[in-house]
Every structure is written in structure tokens, then in C-alpha cells.
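Chapter review. Work through the record for Disease resistance protein TAO1-like isoform X1 before attempting the end-of-chapter questions.
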Amino acid sequence: MELYNELLSGILDHRDMKIPNMLEAQYRFMHQRVLLILDNVTTEELKALQNLSQYLKFGSKMIVMIEDIYIALRHCGIEQIYKVAFPSSEEALQIFSYSAFGQSSPPRGYLEHANEVARLIAPFPLGLKILGSALRGKSKEEWTMVPAKLKSYLNDTDIQKAIRFAFDGLSEKHRTLFKSLANSRYWGKNVDNAIYSLAKTDWDVEKGLQTLADLALISISEEGEIMMHDLIQSMLWSGRLTFVE
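C-alpha cells for Disease resistance protein TAO1-like isoform X1:
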């Protein structure tokens, strides 16, 4: 019900305001054509959206992103499902190269290394971006050590290998800051408020946050809000990330 009311108030331009009459809101909603896009939707939220869809004006579109598509099929009667495919090998190398080298393809002398490393993880864009960012500015000698390092993560999925590789390369101060961000009170909060809360007398938190953002371990929105991908959050919450000298 909370999501249902929030969507109605937002779409009807009544943000942060209580809707006095739900029937009136639904009637107004029926006369507006909307495009609604929601990510990381739970089963309960899908059910609420199913109720909301009854009032959509013809021509409106509702797009929801959910990890388990079978939940959508079983519980909510979703009619159209689009399964996002992995990038092709060429696209994967391009994503990886932009993060590692700042260009669409590896520079001369790094092509073989880049191809070998990029093939060691599934072409999941987040993993490619994190791994590429962690290798930015590294020497050829350091690149040659990457395959063995990734293969040593025996119990991790491909995306987890990329996250762990980046985490292992952090200094102890960066690691401590990164783990502090596992506290959900910082998510979606203004970066300036987080800096004030996390600041230490001998540590530049602002630069530390920027380093984590450069590594794609966190992101900072245009509005200055701190965000972290669910897959990274889950590794932090599970305690699977430990500092390696």
C-alpha cells in the first residue's frame, strides 16, 4: 500500500503529500497516460503494481525489473517478459576497455592482456566495469598476474570475482570506508552529509568516496546521492569480503 500511494502521489504531482481521497486519485490517474519504470521490485510490490495497472489509461506502459522472472509469472500474471542478454564478446571488450583505458579498445601492447582478462569473467557489465576500473593505470607486469588472481577465487561467481579483486586492491582505510557504507543509512543520502558523518581527523573521506566511485564499487548520482549495487551490498552484508594483504 505504501508503494501504491507513493506512485499515485508522484504521478499525480502530489509528492510528499497525503492523498485525501484514494478513489478521486484513481479516477484522475485513469485520465493520464504514463510511462512507469521500476527497478529491483519485490513480490509484494509487484502485487501492488498489478492493482495499479487496472487504472492505467490506454497507451500507458509499465516496465518493472526483477531478478527472478518466475515470481512475476507465478504471482502477478505478467504477460510480456524481456530477458536481457549478455553483451557480445566485442561489446564486453569495449565496456572493459572504456573502464580500463578510457577508450573503446585496448591500446597497442595491451590487446592480448585485455582479451585474456575480459574472457575470465562472464560479460556482465558491472563486473567488466569494476574489473577494468581496478586495472586502470596498471603496468603490463601487473596485468599478467590478474588471471591467476581471478582463478584463485574458487567459491565466487564471475561478478563476485570482479568485486573481490577490486576490494583486495583497496588500502585498509578505503576498505574500512567501503564497509562503513554497508550501513543502509548512507544509501540515497547526500554525499556531503555522508562525508560529515564519516569524517576522521586524519582521513580525507571525500577523496576516499571518489576513489570507490572511480572503481565502480559505489556510484554518486547527479544529485549527489550515494548508491550501491545490490550485488555489492549482498557481498558486504554476508561478510564475504575480507581484507587480503
